[in-house]
Amino acid sequence: MRPSAVLLFLDGVGLGTAGAHNPLSQTNTMPFVTQLVGQPLLAEAQHQSRHCLLKPIDATLQVPGLPQSATGQTTIYTGRNAPQYLGRHQTAFANGSLRPLIEASGLLKQVLHQGGTATLANLYSPAYFEAIANRRLRYSVGTLLNLTAGLTFRMQYEYEQGAAIFWDITGEFAASRGIAHPPISAQAAGVRLANLGRQYSLTLFECYLPDFAGHAQNLEQAQQCLRRIDRLIQATVEHLSAEVTLVITSDHGNVEDLSTKRHTLNAVPLLVIGPQAPAFSAVADLTGITPKLLESLQLQPRSADCRLS
Ligand SMILES: [Zn+2]
User: Fold this and answer.
1) Distance (Å) from CA 34 to ligand 1 centroid
2) How many Å is the Cα radius of gyration of the chain?
3) What is the 242 CA–ligand 1 centroid distance (Å)?
4) Are residues 101 and 71 in contact, defined by beta-carbon separation less than 8 angstroms?
């Protein structure tokens, strides 16, 4: 079977120093991942076995200042150095300035151009698109990535069919966004992610929880969200098909240092679980993820003119 991949994006998770400021220093915060890699997710954490790779990768991308979400995510999803392209790290939304990079080199679009299939697993709502239309919100990088690939968004129907996940994993926040349905467990969300991973060459799921907890400087909230992410990862791994590789990374540090409400300069984790794990060992920073994902899917470009610069 042709290799496929699930990309789990976690907003605001860096590898920091141990201490009371870092919820990741406690091994019970992410028990599954800690056991998997034999250590807590701290600075310099490294692990490599046949089916599992953990390494710190750079998120600063040789651009001064604290790394931010829009440029970090664009870099992860395009393989292009977005902060270098803009000359600065840019926060939150993918406004016009980053769109050309996403249009030209977006991961989902590239997978389609190479004859593969791709999907964004996140649940969207009519309220979200209304807020965009009313200019109360701007597109996130992930939204723009899906949009510029010409892919549909997963809505309530897909959610009810067990084929979408809200960005908070369990859907507890979804009610506040005008989406009415009962929350699911993190384990159930992991099963959903693994099922989608089986059906597409590439499946992307974005979780923003850790960045919120980091900005809130709330230890309990941080531990709760990291435990939820750990349960999601465990269930995904336990239900993953043999040909699927799970790739987990982040755009910048934040939740690993609750002594500041700002982002950090820390490296972020690259955790890869599955048959393609060793192939990611040379990735050094956020620019390396998209090229390595595309390579690992072993797709055949349809024609030369589909090649994106
Ligand atoms: Zn942030």
Assistant:
1) 24
2) 18
3) 34
4) no
Q: CA geometry: angle at 191 spanning 185 and 196, to 5°?
A: 130
The token duo for 113 is: 């151009």
- Please give the distance, rounded to the nearest whole angstrom, from the Cα atom of residue 12 to the centre of ligand 1: 6
Q: What residues pack around ion ligand 1 (CB closer than 5 A)?
A: 211
**Ligand 1 center from residue 212 Cα (angstroms):** 7
Q: What are phi and psi of 129, to 5 degrees?
A: -70, -30
Q: Cα(113) to centroid of ligand 1, in Å? A: 32
Q: How far is the CA of 263 from the centre of ligand 1 (A)?
A: 6
Query: Which CATH fold would you assign to the domain 34-299?
Result: Alkaline Phosphatase, subunit A (3.40.720)
Q: How many CB atoms lie within 10 A of CB 95?
A: 12
State in Å: Cα 67 to ligand 1 middle: 9
Domain residue ranges in the chain: 34-299
For residue 254 the two structure tokens come to: 């934040």
Measure 35 CA to ligand 1 centroid, in angstroms.
28
Distance 265 CA to ligand 1 centre (A): 12
309 residues of the chain, pLDDT tens digit each:
889 999 999 999 999 999 999 999 988 999 999 999 999 999 989 999 999 999 999 999 999 999 999 999 999 999 999 999 999 998 877 667 899 999 999 999 999 999 999 999 999 999 899 999 998 888 999 999 999 999 999 999 999 999 999 999 999 887 666 666 788 999 999 999 999 999 999 999 999 999 999 999 999 999 999 999 999 999 999 999 999 999 999 999 999 999 999 999 999 999 999 999 999 999 999 999 999 999 999 997 665 444 454
Residue 121 phi, psi dihedral angles, 5° rounding: -80, -15
* Alpha carbon distance 304, 225 (integer Å): 44
Question: Do 277 and 51 meet the contact criterion of CB atoms below 8 Å apart?
Answer: yes
